[in-house]
Amino acid sequence: MTATTxxxxxVLKWCNEAGDHAPHRQYVASLVAWHQTxxxxxxxxxxxxxxxxxxxxxxARWSPxxxxxxKPDEAEAVGQALLEAAARAVR
Length: 91
Known about the structure:
- By secondary structure, the protein is an alpha+beta fold.
- It has one domain (7-89).
- Helix content is 20%, strand content 35%.
- A 4-stranded antiparallel sheet has the order 1-2-3-4.
- A hairpin with a 4-residue loop joins β1 (24-33) and β2.
């Protein structure tokens, strides 16, 4: 990715990337987690004519990121499971 062009010029108006780029990516959230030692990223991604999917990225301070690619229904199931787990944790 290069930063020579505004993301407003991407053909996909939802894309946050700048310059010439593939894949297209919309940054949804970045969360610092677990005693501020992990960074969790959630993005909407589309690359090389693939269907739009959700990308979940996790990285510790000194490690390369681990990325999980999810179909929209899989991402929704993970989101529901996280909500359920959080509700159980505070009971």
